């Protein structure tokens, strides 16, 4: 084992500890270049590959993000772990763009006439599901090129189905085993062997666009987390959950939506913005649904921040709007807005036809935060929602914003 690896191994078990697990060992699989760690107490693998990727060229960057945990040991933040997925996704797209330029590696597409009909049917069905669950978003996709629109529908449907496993009518029967099965079906469809019709649409999508399987797997991990965890010690833990269930959506979508040819922003900065939009949306979801989640015995708000504000789970279950609650909520809303702000610059870098649906979703979701404020932070018994007239106003605003082309100013990559 090299000295560099030694440097990595010891803090890495702390990473896994920080993610809520107790005992970790390095996997014995010597072919594993990504540094998979087997978590003894849950009997499954968790990827801590960022650390291995960092040995060498980006070591200083890791050091910058290494933080001390409460026991004084070194640990790597969830933000760093997630940022490495961002870099990997960005690199994949760059690689595909290069191979297109060099005209290598382009496989002729062989589609049998019978299969094409079935495939079109599969995509149409994805479009119908999308229209049923997310009308505004569906309308937005109609502005995209047909290929991109169909691909986004296929991804939407896979995400919806994944969420339904833990939140849908059969959720009480869902076990970690069922999620393992869902993951193996995911692997199959990435290998061109879809299990069903809706999966066939996604299988076709991932064969055409430079979409990586990692964010999909991570979303399933988020659902696993939801099954076993109902409290989050601090924002670092919550950030990881938000990445899993929502940041991943941003990473899945950018390869489809495409970056504007005139954009000169670093690819990873666009992915970072997409990640931020997912995180912002999920934080907003969490703030909006505090009452609903409490009724299911779940508290997604960081426990340490609640304690600092003089609040506890009991105050949430009591569902009383107090001054302590208001001031706590102001800080949470401020944090969610910061993530929306981070996302904003990235939207402009997207290809022109993809900007409108993203702006619309950003503006509409962000307004939920305004509604929470307007309800005087009583989201225990009132559900904050954006009224139809406000939605109607937001859509042309989103359209006007989508006309703004990428500026020549460079985005910070992190
Ligand atoms: C550069 C840049 C800014 C690019 C844009 C990137 C982009 C398109 C980001 C999209 C972010 C987004 C919409 C994230 C979804 C967040 C979300 C709401 C996640 C929900 C998770 C579970 O939450 P929970 O169970 O607490 O909530 P419910 O009560 O169940 O609502 C999800 C439900 C996960 C499943 C996610 C989806 C079904 C949405 C998938 C959406 C797409 C694939 C399309 C995204 C495209 C646009 C234009 C918004
Ligand atoms: Mn859900």
How does this model look, in words?
The chain has 414 residues and is mainly alpha-helical. The protein has two domains: 3-76, no CATH class; 80-402, Orthogonal Bundle (Farnesyl Diphosphate Synthase), CATH 1.10.600. Helix content is 66%, strand content 6%. It is built from 18 helices and seven strands. The strands form three sheets. It has a three-stranded antiparallel β-sheet, covered by helices on one side. Strand 2 (36-39) and strand 3 form a beta hairpin. Helix 4 packs across helix 12, helix 5 (113-133) crosses helix 6 (135-141) and helix 7 runs antiparallel to helix 11. The radius of gyration is 22 Å and the shape is globular. Ligand LST6JFWI binds next to helix 6, helix 7, helix 11, helix 12 and helix 16.
Structure, briefly:
Pathway: Carotenoid biosynthesis; phytoene biosynthesis; all-trans-phytoene from geranylgeranyl diphosphate: step 1/1. Belongs to the phytoene/squalene synthase family. The protein is mainly alpha-helical and 414 residues long.
């Amino acid at each position: 084992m090299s000295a560099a690896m030694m440097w990595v191994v010891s803090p890495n078990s702390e990473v896994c500890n920080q993610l809520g697990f107790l005992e970790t060992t390095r996997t014995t699989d010597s072919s594993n270049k990504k540094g998979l760690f087997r978590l003894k107490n849950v009997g499954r693998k968790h990827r801590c590959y960022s650390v291995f990727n960092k040995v060498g060229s980006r070591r200083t960057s890791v050091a910058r993000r290494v933080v001390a945990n409460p026991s004084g040991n070194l640990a790597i933040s969830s933000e760093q772990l997630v940022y490495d997925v961002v870099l990997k996704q960005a690199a994949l797209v760059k690689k595909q763009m290069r191979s297109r330029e060099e005209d290598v590696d382009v496989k002729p597409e062989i589609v049998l006439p019978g299969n094409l009909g079935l495939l079109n049917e599969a995509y149409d069905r994805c479009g119908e599901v999308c229209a049923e669950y997310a009308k505004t978003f569906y309308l937005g996709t109609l502005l995209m090129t047909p290929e991109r629109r169909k691909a986004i529908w296929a991804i939407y449907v896979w995400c919806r189905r994944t969420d339904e496993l833990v939140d849908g009518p059969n959720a009480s029967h869902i076990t970690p085993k069922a999620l393992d099965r869902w993951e193996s079906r995911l692997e199959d469809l990435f290998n061109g062997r879809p299990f069903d019709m809706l999966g066939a649409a996604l299988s076709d999508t991932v064969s055409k666009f430079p979409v990586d399987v990692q964010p999909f797997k991570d979303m399933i991990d988020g659902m696993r987390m939801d099954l076993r965890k109902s409290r989050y010690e601090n924002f670092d833990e919550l950030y990881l959950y938000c990445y899993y269930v929502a940041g991943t959506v941003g990473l899945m979508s950018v390869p489809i939506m495409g970056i504007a040819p005139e954009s000169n922003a670093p690819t990873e900065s666009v992915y970072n913005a997409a990640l931020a939009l997912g995180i912002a949306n999920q934080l907003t979801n969490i703030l909006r649904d505090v009452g609903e989640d409490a009724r299911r015995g779940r508290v997604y708000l960081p426990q340490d921040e609640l304690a600092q504000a003089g609040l506890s789970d009991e105050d949430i279950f009591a569902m009383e709007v107090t001054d302590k609650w208001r001031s706590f909520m102001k800080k949470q809303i401020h944090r969610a807005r910061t993530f929306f702000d981070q996302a904003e610059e990235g939207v402009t870098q997207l290809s022109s036809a993809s900007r409108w649906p993203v702006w619309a979703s950003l503006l509409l979701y962000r307004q939920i935060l305004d509604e929470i404020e307007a309800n005087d932070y009583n989201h225990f018994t009132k559900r904050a929602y954006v009224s139809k007239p406000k939605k109607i106003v937001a859509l042309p605003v989103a359209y006007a914003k989508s006309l703004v082309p990428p500026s020549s100013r460079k985005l910070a990559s992190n």
